[in-house]
Each structure stands twice: as structure tokens, then as C-alpha cells.
Amino acid sequence: MLALRLARGSAPLALLRRLLLAGAAGCVAFLLLAALAHAAADPVGGRASVLRLAWCAVPLAATVQLAVAVARADPSARPRAGLAVAGMGPARLPALAAASAAVAALLGTGLALLVFLHLRGDLGGLPLDGAAAGALAAGEPLPLGGMLTLLAVVPGAAAAAGALAVRRPEPPRRDLPPVGDPAAVARATPPTPAPAGLPWGTALATAGIALCAYGGDDAPATPADGWLPVTGQLGGVAAGVVGGWLLIAAGIVLAGPGVVHLSGMLLCAGRPGVMRLLAGRTLQDESRRLGRPLGALAAAGGALLAAVELDGLREFGPLGTLGTGVVLACALGTVATVADDARAARRSATATLLRLGAPRGMLRGAAALRAATLLGLLLPLTWLTTFLLTLPAGG
């Protein structure tokens, strides 16, 4: 009940984040129900059903990442005196975050169930009733236990992710040293140590390249009937190649914080001015917060470009396209949420610089330089992901 009251009184931006989470959860639930309908209609086609269910894991992971970002950015997940008086101290904040994420995900899954039953033709009297009866195996009885289990996957995963995100929050920003002018503040702030993920991400991506090279010699997978990209030029993809793709994407995500930190170091290299120094030190300080969402967005964009280059989008079908759209929307929403949360965390430091006499134009220029640097990182990372994913087809 407290989670519902806090959601009703939230700011419009917080409500928009929860609605995005609800929409993503609903789309993933719809994909899971469609996979169940396919398995019920074709009980002997086990491999194709497993492939459909495995494809649902990708948008599910993107939705979980979005749930983590939304939980960390939610104002109700931060310790406040009012919540402490109501008995919601820091020890019970994870339960509140889990309840908020579960409510949003349950709203999406409930709507997805209604849309699924309507498109199957089980709910009459409405427009487009039974419009996707063939694709959703209308007339085939679906096991109630299986439906309830699949519908509980997304809310359960979102609730667990929200609770863990609040229990293990992002490291707080350091306070600025009390020195007399903005230039001295920027130069007196020590750089943040580099994250440890860059070498591990590079090793993981390298292992993915090797797995693609060796896995390409395996027997091709049995093609599915136009829902997954396993026909056409993407068809006959061996399981080793798919595993290599997943390792490459995971390596890009894991290396994201290190790449952002390295870009901040390069901005501070040489004899930088105050604007470049502020932008570089801020990127180093926020590399752990921004790096992985940026890497996930680059991996999602690179996978989409690789599918376009390999002419595989035509083989996706509407449900595969829906899953791809969920992954991209969740990646973009996660980056926007984390960026807004980082901006809110910088307010105290910005206020300190303004009190010391820093021009607002300099602070805006530093923010624009940070945004340009992150965009300059995103484009090469996306191109690198596309290149690595298309290596098996080129070789």
C-alpha cells in the first residue's frame, strides 16, 4: 500500500520511468506467452520452442537492467526522515523498491495477458478479436500452471533486481575540497581509480570471437518458422556462433565503465583548461554509473545493425521485431535514467562551484563536452560490436 501511495505522489518523470518499465514487462510477458502457445500447438517441435523461449531471455535481461536503473533513480528508494518515521528505514528500503518494481511489472503483465487472450480470440466483442489466432495457436488449450509461471517471471525478476539495486547502491560522489576558486577545485579533486572491467571485458569479447571461429564449423541449427533469425543468411547458425555473439555483447557491456573512465583520462591529459578538466574528472567519477548502460546500448545497437547487414530482419517476424524493440527501448531508457540520476547527484557539486564564482557558461560547456564525449564513445562501440558480430559471416 505504501508503494502505491508513493507511486501516486511521484513526480511525472518518475511515473514515466515506471510506465516504461510496465510496458517493457508487458512486452516480455507477451513474448513468453507466445512461446508457450507455440509449444502447445507443436508439442513435437521441441527445438523451435526452446529457441523461442531462449530469445525471450534477451529482452528479459534488458528489462531487468531497466528495473535496476529505475529503482536506483526512484526518490522513494533513498533514506528520508518521513519514511523512517513510517517505519521504512534503510533496512526496509529494499522491500519498498521490490514492491514498487513488482507493481509496475504486474501492471504490464496483466495488460499483456489481456492483449494475448484478445488476439487469440478468447475475449469476444472487441475490435481485432482473434487477429493473431494463427500465430498464437488459437483453439489449443494452454496449461494454467505454465501461464501463471511465465507471468510471474518478469515481476519476480524486476522485484529482485530492484531490491538488490537499493541494497547495493552506486558509490556516492565525493565532496569537493574547500578551496578558493573553481580552477583550484578542479585541480585539487583527485582522479577516481579506474574500474577493473576493461581487461575482463576485452578478454570476454576475445573469447567470443574465438568461439564464433570454432563454433562456425559445427552443424547448423534447425531453422525455425520465421520468428527467430535462424533462416536466410542468418540461417543455419551454429550454437557456438550464437554463444560467441553473447560473449561479445557481454564483453562490450563489461568493458563500458573502463572505456568511459579512459575517455575521462584522455580529456584530462596534457595541460587541460578548467572546462576540460571538470568534464574529464566528472566522467572518471561517474564511469561506474554510466559505463554499463552505455555498453548495453552499444551492444543492442550493434546487434541491430548486424542483423540489418546480414539481411536477417525480414526473418524476424512480428514477435521477433517486438523483442528487438523492447531491447532497444530498455537500453535507451536505462541510459536516460542513469544520466538523469547522475545529473541529480551532481547538484551539490554544481551549487558549490556556483558559490565559488564559476560561470554558468563554463558549467554548461563542461556538460556539453561530456555529452559529446559519450556520444563519441557510443558510435565506435556500436560499430565495433557490429563488426565483431558479422565476423562469422564474413569469414
UniProtKB/TrEMBL annotation:
Superkingdom of the organism of origin: Bacteria
Keywords assigned: Membrane, Transmembrane, Transmembrane helix
Protein name stated in the entry: Uncharacterized protein
Chain segments annotated as transmembrane: 49-72, 93-119, 144-166, 236-269, 320-339, 367-389
Lineage, top ranks: Bacteria, Bacillati, Actinomycetota, Actinomycetes, Kitasatosporales
Annotated source species: Streptomyces radicis
